[in-house]
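[scheduler] slot 2 assigned
[scheduler] job type: sequence-to-structure, two independent chains
[scheduler] chain ordering preserved from manifest
[runner] begin chain α
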Amino acid sequence: MDTIGILLTIIKLTGALAVFLFAMKLMSEGLQKFAGSKLRHTLTKITGKPWSGILAGTGVTSIIQSSTATTVMTVGFAGAGLLTLAGAIAVVMGANIGTTVTAWIITLFGLSGGGDEKVPLMPMVIAAIGLFFIFSKKDRMQYLGQTIIGLAMLILGLGLMGDSVPPLNEDVAQSIASLGHWGYWSVLLFIVVGAILCIILQTSSAMTAVILLMASQGWIDFPTSMALVIGQNLGTTLTAQVVAMTTGTTGKRTARAHLVFNVVGAILFIVPFYPICDAVWFVAEKLDPILPHVPILPLAITIFHTLFNVFTTIVLSFFIPQLVKIVTWMVPDKNADEGDEEFRLTYLEPNLLSTAELNLQSAKSEIEEFSKRVLRMYTFLPGLRTAKNDEEFDAIMARIAKYEGITDRMEMEISKFLTKVGSGDVSVHASERVSTMLRIIDNLESIGDAIYQIAMTRQNKREDAVHFDAGLNANLDQMTQLVQEALDVMDRNLHDYDHVDLDAAYDAEHAINAYRDRLRKQHLDALKLGVYDYAIGNAYSSLYALYEKLGDYVLNVSEAIDSSRKHSED
């Protein structure tokens, strides 16, 4: 083959791979939009049992065709307290099983060829079916149509890749074959090659297609294919490791668990490699008469791919507590006590999740983290009154000021993320959820500002040597407690948008307003009677008014959630 021929072959292969990857993206996005909020709630229903987590991870990954997206979602759930680390590990295990669906789709529908037809019939029939749904007036049916057409393009793209592969040159065949004559050294070599190729392609689905295609064209034999599959499973863990570098402790531990899982699986299959090779080939031969249109070599590879993930999951599911200990040892919590003192976004990784339906779950987890920071910031306020000296008072003020800066930056970063999500191709429900989240973070930031203003009022009072008597301090303590109860209601509502307790939010707000009215009346009477001077009265009234204003922002959060829920039900 001359230089021009080689160049044309590379261009054809690259274009065919682009069609395949675009089809995967189209199908994945359609499925995620079609599933909508139900997809986001699937993982939140997990109990503490390992197999429920494994099944959930398998199901979600089978739907969205991205184990990376499932892993990132899982990190968000664990950090939000919806999943323990053990539960997160179980979901990651299930995600590995879910990735085998791609291999079966390709093997059963994408490698049978189109006969002598210039255009394969199967993908055209599938695309025609999807066309009926695309023109539906209902959004969910359009998303289903997008999914079906994505599947048709996936099969077509795989066929184009197969047509683009040149006939196997005898010299090339001998070169590849010679690499397989070194026994276990050859196995290790192809494992490394598989890992590198998967890292380059940045998707295990595309790597699976490449392995199956090479095997069906006679480029590689079965043992080589098995080694590439093992390497692929190792290579796919790199993305999670890179992402985990920017996340908190839970994210890093979940990513390490993914790595440990695949490394252990590789060891389990490398040691008895050739006996497993013979056993899988035996099973493929038995299934070959049942699936006559499927080439036996791709079928055997798919069986091995499934066996690797299912067997490893079954074995390691009994050792999840030990896995938790291992990854906890690998990623110690260096900032267990002061982790909230630094600004960081834990769950937002816009380049990993392919659609708004999944991006919004990460944003929700980040907003819950935002709420956690605000509630912690609020707990510093009582210390300003009870501080025994200036050093203690100044230390608390410094912490409050630091948290106020953190809330400002969190509001800005989450807002930028949501605006980017909302500007994309999103469903109506997702667009409404983006608007809701923008309102929520705006009010959370306002709560942080109100807390800081209360702290500054306390500081000014201290500098001016203004002192409250026991009665005024008791009144403000009671107001502090009422606002704390409202904050607790708000935080609970932020964890479940579909079951917001608006009545409890209103009750808490009414209690704050009623108490504010009572304090204001008492304050005006005290001023008339000259119970305390203007400086004391001004500081006192400013404080209870700021607490009441803080309560308004708290209520706004629950009202925003409830408004979104009502829109989604309409």
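[runner] end chain α
[runner] begin chain β
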Amino acid sequence: MAHAGITPYNILYTAAALLLLLWLALTVIAVNLRLYRRERENKRRFRYERMFFRNVNRSEDIVYMILRRSDKKLLYLSENAEKMWGIRAQQIETDIEALEKVTTREYRREFMRKWKEWDEEGELVQNFVSREPDGKEVWYELTAAVSEDGKAYLFRFRENTYERAEIARLREEINQAHRDVQYKTDFLSNMSHEIRTPMNGILGMLALSRMSAARMDDYCKSSEEYAAISEYLEKAESLSQFLLGLINDILDMSRIESGKLELASEPFDLFEFAEKLRTMFQKTIEEKGVIFKLEILDFDVRRVIGDELRLSQVIVNFLSNAVKFTPPGGQITVTFRQMNRMEDKVHFMIRVRDTGKGITPEFLQRVFKPFEQETATIAKSYGGSGLGMAIADNMVKLMDGQIIVDSEVGKGSDFNVYLALPVDSSQPQEIVEDRILSEKKPETEERPEKECTIEGMRFLMAEDNEINAEIAMSILEEMGACVERAENGREAVDMFESHEPGYYDTILMDIQMPVMNGWEASATIRALARKDAGVIPIYALSADAFVEDKRRSVSIGMNGHISKPIDFGELVKTVGRTL
């Protein structure tokens, strides 16, 4: 009989049983490990939570509260709530509205409004005040959020009374600083107006003195006394112009610091701008024995939009310094160069290069700071307030440009202005070529400018200041004009209206006048129903010299705004061009 020994099936069953036992053993081990880890994690979490709540309860200025989201049941309130508010957790558990006594009805209503609008995403923040029994106000910042599992609302009440008081104090300091800057700006603005008025009189009197001296006979003019008087008048005019420049610099710096300096945005021709610089400086530079060169390179655009006056102020400052510090035999070169053109803007550089004394590396670090000069002897030897460079730097920054200075002691300096200005698209740009404007032109090409004259013209001048009126009338009458004066804007309107059309050729209008100011008077004249009211030239003559004042004058309907002290030569040219 055959023996029933080990068969393949017995081996298979045995292996399956062993594998099952092994799987069961591994499962048990895995479950035990999971339970062990969970227990260890729970112990660690419990330890952390115990530490957290212990630290929370130690906090003197923060109260934590947890409400169940489903029924608003209190789950936790930190122990210091009783110390801060006099409310125990048991009171809130029985009546959640016990919290109402923490703050006022006004803040509760505001919180409930925010609560209803809250989408429970992120945090809800509310500041409220609590009044203690002794009447002291205590401020809290309430922050509400939903827990990560979405089952609870988490609240944090943080006292921020001191913080709010500190913020309020700092805010008041900032406001006071702004007020101080405004007071300074207003003071300087008013002082500018008040100083310009007598300066107008001083320069006018000097001009009249020169006119009187010019009428002297040849015998008097040949005397030493006449030569001395002429020298005194020339020096007095020079000092007056220096004082006026100083007033302008201080006023500009003040308005820059207060953020109230405005730039004009008007079309101008870069080539004409360069020509004005040449006309202004070439004779003076060459008389000093310095070579002068002005070049315009690589331009395919010549008309741009910007503030020509302020840009001129920057370049004139650099050129004036170059003239001061470049000795005879040296050279000053002004270069206008187009860098590139991108869409509707042209990027260009204006460089003023001199071969003068140069700037030390130490002073180069502070050259654009207000009232800075390299040494005390510089101010004595060359003059200046130390404001020009600071004003130039701020002007260029307002234009979104940059100034780069390169200098070497004993060899000279480069002042480079980089700007990007909009191209003037109001009229076609003519083809331009590189040119050097400082070269002498052949006599056959010279076209002397037609001399402007006001001889035989009749002016209506509105001026309330007796001395300024007397001076202006005397100078204009010396030039051959007839001047009729009104003492205020209302009188000027009446005088214009009482005469036939065309009686007056031009109106000169002061701005700050009693009864009716110059702007109101000009607007009234422009609105009159007569044929000359809309076309007669009206010019503002004002000690207010800000860009916004000039803009307002033009917007009112005036033809221009001439700042005091009045440059009567420029006034004649301006009126002549208009007529």
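[runner] end chain β
[qc] chain β: Residues 440-448 have pLDDT under 50 and may be disordered.
[scheduler] slot 2 released
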